[in-house]
Amino acid sequence: MADVSVLGQYVPVCMTTILAGGFIFGLWRILTRDDVTVSTRQGMNPEGLRYGSGSQGFGNAKIEIDRKLAIVANRRRRQESIASHLETENTERQAKQQLDQTRARQEAEHQQMYADAQEAAQKEARQASEAAQNIRDQEDAARRREEEEARLAAERENQRQSDFLAAEEARLSEIAAAQQQQVSSTNANSKAIKELQARLEREGAKSSDVQVSLMWNNYNDLDLHIVCPSGERLHGGNKTSACGGILDVDANVRAETRKPVENVFWPEGTAPGGQYHVYVHYYKKHNKRRSKDPTVFQIMVNSGGEMTEYSAELSKGDPIMQVCSFNVSSKSERDKVKRELEMELNSLKNRFTDADADGSAQLSIEELATATGMSLEEAEVVHKKADKDGDGSVSLDEYLSASDVPSAPDLESLGNED
Questions:
Q1: pLDDT tens digits for 251-298?
Q2: Average pLDDT estimate for 110-128
């Protein structure tokens, strides 16, 4: 672009030099030609210089030179215009190139700034993530330490509780052993059963194949506690256990009766199998009608139809007393025993029917011996015991009520107080 500009400067000078040289050469040529006649008259017109050969004169030559000079000038102006246009375009192109370079540089700087900002943001995010991870790691470590400390503390507490329970169980076992020496146990006699039934009927209590009842004869408040096979304790503060046991009578919370009864039962056939523990707690002494201590009580346990009676006594301030423990067979075992008893009863009924020669449903001593397989002497003893009405014959019901009747104390011995 610079070369074109320099060339544009020298072209007019060269053209001028060339034209001036041509003009001088033309004058010299005109003057040196033999056929040229020069008119020296004043006021020579342009055509005064003529060639002798009739060629065009000086005036026409001047016109031709002016025309050519005009052409040269036009060409020079056109070349100057072209040079100016080229210079303008070159300037614009340079300006555009500079603008493009500036824009490119700015874009590169912007991209670099964006990349730097993005890298800084990523670095900050990475540092924040690392810091958060460090915090989480520290929290996890602290939580693990706390859990480990809690676990160790729980183990220590469990061990302490275990040691305490073992010591407590040993102490309670010693107390229970000492108390058991004070408890007398017998098979329930008929008078005790009748007294129990009367009190239960009075209170609207229920009976079943697994049942525990407590009786005593004053206004004091004794509480019956049953520990189920699951370990749950059934008492006045927990009258219905998860295993189905129900305390339906809780006596003498206030001094209500001199012949109280408390009763716990499981609906027929629902008591879970396992070992049950029976306790009596002397809860409160009611100062009414000179109720005195010690308070004698009876526990009646019905375990699958087998009645057992326990007698003992407590005074106000005595620790809770474990009276007895009993086992209940599983439901399948109880069903099996029930079927066997039903079969045995049906067999006995059939033997009674076969031995009843006159069809009176009453058996003599000989017929009873035949039906039961006893000797006449054994049959005579049982027959005499079962023949309550003294008519000389025994029915099946009389025989069943007289079989295996024990000699045991009854509640008459409890009625001496007050």
A1: 888 878 889 999 999 998 889 999 999 999 998 888 766 677 889 999
A2: 89
Q: For the whole model, what pTM was predicted? A: 0.46
Rounded Cα distance between 75 and 21, Å, is: 19
N-terminal to C-terminal alpha carbon distance within the chain: 144
φ and ψ at residue 25, rounded to 5 degrees: -65, -35
Spatial separation of the C-alpha atoms in residues 314 and 297, rounded to whole Å: 8
Here the contacts of 159-164 (C-beta below 8 Å, separation 24 or greater) are none
Classify burial at 265, counting beta carbons within 10 Å of its beta carbon; exposed 0-12, middle 13-18, buried 19 or more. Answer: buried
Please answer whether residues 223 and 281 qualify as being in contact, where contact means their C-beta atoms are separated by less than 8 angstroms: yes
| Residues 210, 302 contacting (CB under 8 angstroms) | yes
- Contact (Cβ atoms closer than 8 angstroms) between residue 265 and residue 247: no
Residue 49: CB partners within 8 Å, gap ≥ 6?
Answer: 30, 36, 38, 39, 57, 58, 59
Domains of the chain: 2-109 (no CATH), 185-328 (2.60.60), 332-418 (1.10.238.10)
Pairing of strands 49-51, 36-38: antiparallel
- Reading the block at residue 167, the tokens are 């010591």
pLDDT, tens digit, 9 for 90 and up, residues 191-236: 778 888 889 899 898 988 899 999 998 888 899 999 999 999 999 8
For 132-188, the pLDDT digits (tens) are 999 999 999 998 998 998 888 888 878 877 776 676 666 656 655 555 544 555 555
**Any bridge partners for residue 234, and if so which?**
226
Residue 196's CB is within 10 A of a number of other CB atoms, namely 25
Q: Residue with structure tokens 């005579």?
A: 380
Exposed / middle / buried, residue 71 (Cβ in 10 Å: 0-12, 13-18, 19+) = exposed
Sequence-distant (≥ 6) Cβ neighbours of residue 184 within 8 angstroms: 310, 311, 312
Burial of residue 266 (CB within 10 Å: 0-12, 13-18, 19+) is buried
